[in-house]
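To: structure desk
From: M.T.
Subject: fold request, one chain
Message: Could you run this one when you get a chance? Sequence is below, nothing fancy, just the single chain.
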Amino acid sequence: MIGIQDDGDDPQHPEEHIAPVPRISVQAFCETEQTLKAVTAAGQDRRLAKAHLSAKDGGLAAAIEAYESMPTPNVIVIESDGTRDILEGLDDLAGVCDPGTRVVVIGSPNDTAPYRELVRRGVNDYVVGPVETLDVVRSICSLFSASEAIITGRVIAVVGAKGGVGASTVAHNLAWTIARDLSLDSVVIDLDLAFGTAGLDYNQDPVQGIANAVLSQDRPDTALMERLLAKCTDRLSLLAAPATLDRVYDFGAEAFDAVFDTLRMTTPCIVLDVPHQWSGWTRRALVNADDIVIVAEPDLANLRNTKNMLSVLKAARPNDRPPLYCLNQVGMHKRAEIEVKAFAKTMESQPIAVIPFDSKLFSTAANNGQMIAEVSRTHRTTVLFQNMANRLAGRGEVKKPKRSLLEPLLKKLKGKSGRSSAPHRKAS
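Reply: Done. Structure tokens follow.
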């Protein structure tokens, strides 16, 4: 069956958006081995990549002793095992704590202190133990995404399992659909600087784009990004690739970080069109995205590459939803293909979508600089992109209303009613 597949999200990785933290220092003082392991693992999470996090034993008493002789970090995480009066301990901590330090308390079911009393003593978040890694990540990140009152955009990275599988087409249609159907301000970033096609697909020819941002001597800010963005629709903008070969585009692993961070502050949805290559910066772009979609065709090379990419990216993002994949150009005439069921069995998961091969539809859209929905609004592929957009934005799948068996009869009666109510003309 060709269409969107929904095998449910992994319960270990709930579908939620946790924004990454800025460059901060975090120190945790734990009472139990489980919490110590959870905090240590949280330090490896992509959303805390910019944080300097350390964890040690001793709980509240160790924290008070440590800060009598050293300055406090941006965030202190304290575990209480319920054996000491937590309010009294927090009062002692306040005496050695620097202004502006944020405090997270991992409490015990035995704690009896009211939450309002904890807040009065400067506690920014309280979590009842035992905690898992994602609990620690969520608590620390929420201190900044909530308190700074800034937009923290969702990043969706789309990459091909092999060259020429149509990953860019999927990325561009997906972003266009999110902007139009979900009314989310979105930006597409074409990261294939030498051969990118986003400008062609959106019928745009911007003079500036992603190269100007990443090659700038100064750190990109919001004002610069606004100047570089090309407006495609009311809600969709493009950071285009130069698509020229007058220089080589070799970058360090962190080359695009500042661009992504700046856009996250102003744009709810960012879609990365990642070229099919494996380098430090492409791997980092994929690992740090909120969601990953791998686009593949149903053949052996794509099967191998998709399996390898899923395995590596899932291991690098243990606290995130596993990467997703979609099958494209399925059902090409006279081509031997791996069946969707066999492909999914090897991946141990269902594809987010199975897009049928339709050379006329896709070539017409590409040559006209249009999206699939602009060529055919009712085509089944248009519905697939709508469903993908909804699922990746956390809105769920679009479901068509069921057609009533009485609908033809009601239409006929409505037609008769309209004719009977029309005024009769007098015979001349």
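Reply (cont.): Confidence is low (pLDDT under 50) at residues 8-14, 398-402, 418-428. Let me know if you need anything else for the meeting.
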